[in-house]
TrEMBL record, chain A:
It is found in: Cell membrane. CDD domains: TM_PBP1_transp_AraH_like. Its main location: membrane. The chain crosses the membrane at residues 20-37, 97-121, 128-145, 165-186, 215-235, 247-265, 272-291, 297-314. One of its GO terms (cellular component) is plasma membrane. PANTHER family: ABC TRANSPORTER PERMEASE PROTEIN YPHD-RELATED (PTHR32196:SF21), ABC TRANSPORTER PERMEASE PROTEIN YPHD-RELATED-RELATED (PTHR32196). One of its GO terms (molecular function) is transmembrane transporter activity. This is Ribose transport system permease protein. The lineage of its organism: Bacteria, Pseudomonadati, Pseudomonadota, Alphaproteobacteria, Rhodobacterales. It is a multi-pass membrane protein. Keywords: Cell inner membrane, Cell membrane, Membrane, Transmembrane, Transmembrane helix, Transport. Pfam families: BPD_transp_2.
Automatic annotation (TrEMBL), chain B:
InterPro entries: Peripla_BP_I, SBP_2_dom. It holds the Pfam family Peripla_BP_4. This is Ribose transport system substrate-binding protein. CDD domains: PBP1_ABC_sugar_binding-like. Belongs to the bacterial solute-binding protein 2 family. It is found in: Cell envelope. Residues 58-316 form the Periplasmic binding protein domain. GO terms for cellular component: cell envelope. It comes from Gemmobacter aquatilis. It comes from the Bacteria. The lineage of its organism: Bacteria, Pseudomonadati, Pseudomonadota, Alphaproteobacteria, Rhodobacterales. Residues 1-23 form the signal peptide. One of its GO terms (molecular function) is carbohydrate binding. Coiled coil: none annotated.
Length: 320, 378
């Protein structure tokens, strides 16, 4: 009995160790925040952190799936920029155009993802190169479309960024729902489990007859869709799309994924870890702001966290 | 390239002195934009609703650093806060690293930290509009400095006149070219208000002259290195057909002049350029005999924004747009009917000074940004 329990415990730790570490860090940061300022724990500040984390969370959700298959999507930043200028450019203040414009950019996201996957599968080019090239091409298209802010959104479109649902930020509620839905899909749907299988051992999965091409098409389309959705939330927050608005997301979307325990080599990790990673990054920036620490140090701290997280988790896999 | 980098971009060389005051022909009068404003009614804001007892906590959400102008501007703000220690309990400065998302988050954080007034230099005019508007709606006054938002949802905007810079630059080029020629327009950062306003107002002038052709509009991102790259490709494309370069600020002008020098243009043949504030382009213009117009955009406006913020919190009336004076100077022999200023570039330039020195910083003769330190309330 004891042996079984110990095994169960060690299995739990093996599966969730990284998430436990992130939760621990979240608690430490929260304690530091409370010690730094009595305003830190205010409802207003907590709502701010939840609002601020929405866009990073959604783009990282898509990124998590590509990393789980052993790939990566470096086109998300440019895709966000293109989708954002198209959304506000097509809408251009006309409420009747909001819905069609949203549909167009979401379809664009899916198409870009499918193209990425197609190049990975049939041209047999590494996803790093495919998506890097796609990102450069999309940035060029974006700048051909507009050199500056394009169009505008009608009044009321900021409800996604600033609206409240049951007292919580609308975006944060949607984010959590998306993550829970995806976690459920990955764990319980057969197709979801293929994502892990392909990332864990691509050759083995293929020998077993798993539909690698279909899984990759789905995963990159999902990432493209989430990047487009991120653009919609950004445009809601800014009121306009801009040609470089997504530039920083290419690399920052990877941070929560690796911090949350998903291995860059693929096959291990999950989206709940990513969500915790997103909250860690957002909380860290917030606490450092409260501590009057310059944003330059914030970048350094984020960089160090990524390197430490990757080194810790890589070591863990070697031991297994 | 290395030469350019070491001369203009290495931040360790940043330096500025208030040299303008030394020249006899420097303008020291009241703001010209106010005196020359033909409108009988000038917009003023009643700020009595924001009046409260001090000492105050003031937040400054900065778009970012990254060029010598912005470094001097932040130092000028710290200096103004130090000079008003009795009235300011705390000045909290955040730096968004030129990222709209980060700046919106910074603004939210500053508000939740309980600032009495927020000073904002917006990374881009449109993207920061909703965030700043929400702060105003919550009852916290916002003073914009250097870079405004698209709407008028702020108490006042402390600036030099971007519109006048844009128009003067354009009118001077038109007159230098006799109303006919090809112009390359080099904006700063796409979407930032100084860049957009200067370009828009320049076009109001250029559009009146059908023989002036804007062959291309490019962006130098306020950087001499980027400006040089961009101008090199313009020279490749248009060569001798470029008759003038309209540059939104002096941070980019030296890159453009260097591109012409390296492409083989002899002294005295490089087309007319426009500039602001920075020593380097003035040195290069004198050395290579480039016709140059300087209309300043002084970073001292950031210090002014602190003084304006205090006026707002004390309930005093403030202009809707608080414009501070710009110096206007040209190279010898390059006045035109409209740009008939007495101040000359060789009076403003610090001949032996660093190229990235800002001659309009207002920080005093001993200022050195690499060693600058001041005890301001924080």
């Amino acid at each position: 009995m004891t042996v079984i329990r110990t095994r169960a415990q060690s299995e739990f730790l093996r599966r969730n160790g990284s998430q436990i570490i992130v939760v621990g860090l979240l608690v430490v940061l929260a304690i530091v925040g409370v010690l730094v300022s009595d305003r830190f724990a205010s409802v207003n500040n907590i709502m701010n952190i939840l609002e601020q984390s929405v866009t990073l969370a959604i783009v990282s959700l898509g990124q998590t799936l590509t990393v789980l298959t052993g790939g990566i999507d470096l086109s998300v930043g440019s895709l966000i920029s293109l989708a954002s200028v198209l959304l506000s450019g097509i809408t251009n203040g006309d409420p009747a155009m909001v819905f069609p414009a949203i549909m167009i950019v979401l379809a664009l996201g899916i198409c870009v993802g499918l193209l990425n996957a197609a190049a990975v599968i049939w041209l047999k080019v590494h996803p790093l190169i495919v998506t890097l090239g796609m990102g450069a091409a999309l940035q060029g298209v974006t700048l051909l479309y507009t050199m500056g802010p394009a169009g505008k959104m009608p009044l009321g479109f900021d409800v996604l960024a600033y609206g409240r649902f049951l007292g919580l930020p609308v975006g944060a509620v949607i984010t959590v729902a998306l993550f829970l839905g995806t976690a459920f899909f990955l764990r319980y749907a057969r197709f979801g489990r293929y994502v892990y299988a392909i990332g864990d051992d691509a050759v083995g999965a293929q020998l077993m007859g798993l539909p690698r091409a279909k899984v990759l098409l789905f995963v990159y389309a999902f990432s493209g869709f989430m990047a487009a959705l991120t653009a919609i939330f950004l445009v809601s927050r800014f009121g306009v799309g801009q040609p470089y608005t997504g530039a920083n997301f290419t690399l920052t979307s990877i941070t929560p994924v690796v911090v949350g325990g998903t291995l860059l080599a693929g096959g291990r990790g999950g989206v709940i870890g990513t969500l915790l990673g997103v909250y860690l990054v957002s909380l860290l920036n917030n606490v450092l702001n409260y501590m009057d620490i310059s944003s330059h140090y914030q970048l350094i701290v984020q960089g160090l966290i990524v390197i430490i997280a990757v080194s810790v988790y890589v070591e863990k896999k070697r031991k297994l | 390239m290395k030469n350019l980098f070491t001369r203009f971009a290495a931040p360790v060389l940043l330096c500025t002195v208030a040299t303008g005051a030394l020249a006899d022909n420097t303008y020291t009068g009241a703001p010209r934009t106010f005196l020359f404003n033909p409108a009988q009614d000038v917009c003023f804001k009643d700020t009595s609703q924001y009046k409260k007892d001090g000492p105050y906590t003031i937040g400054f959400s900065n778009a970012g650093l990254g060029d010598s102008w912005r470094v001097v501007a932040v130092h000028s703000m710290m200096k103004a806060a130090a000079e008003n220690k009795d009235r300011i309990a705390k000045l909290i400065i955040t730096d968004a690293g030129h990222d709209d998302s980060k700046q919106v988050a910074d603004i939210q954080d500053l508000v939740s930290r309980g600032v009495d007034l927020l000073i904002v230099s917006a990374n881009t005019a449109q993207a920061l509009d909703p965030a700043v508007t929400r702060v105003m709606e919550s009852g916290i006054p916002v003073v914009m400095v250097d870079r405004r938002i698209e709407s008028d949802n702020f108490v006042t905007f402390v600036t030099a006149s971007d519109a006048i810079s844009g128009r003067l630059f354009a009118q001077w080029i038109v007159e230098k070219l006799g109303g006919k020629g090809n112009v390359v327009m080099m904006g700063g950062q796409a979407g930032s208000s100084p860049s957009e306003i200067r370009m828009k107002t320049a076009m109001q002038v250029f559009n009146q002259y059908p023989d002036i052709k804007i062959v291309e509009t490019v962006y130098g991102d306020w950087s001499p290195v980027k400006a040089k790259q961009v101008m090199q490709s313009m020279i490749q494309k248009y060569g001798q057909d470029i008759d003038a370069v309209w540059s939104a600020h002096g941070l980019m002008t030296p890159g453009s002049i260097e591109a012409f020098v390296e492409a083989g243009w002899a002294d005295g043949t490089i087309p007319p350029h426009t500039t602001a504030d920075v020593n380097g382009p003035m040195q290069l213009a004198l050395k290579h005999k480039v016709p140059l117009l300087e209309v300043g955009y002084p970073p001292a406006m950031a210090g002014e924004s602190i003084k304006t913020a205090l006026k707002v919190l004390e309930g005093a009336q403030v202009p809707c747009i608080s414009e501070i004076n710009s110096q206007i100077a040209v190279t010898e022999g390059d006045t035109t009917p409209s740009i008939d200023t007495r101040l000359r570039i060789d009076e403003m330039v610090i001949a032996n000074g660093p190229a990235d020195l800002l001659v309009t910083g207002g920080m005093g003769p001993d200022y050195d940004p690499t060693t600058f330190s001041i005890d301001y309330p924080q």
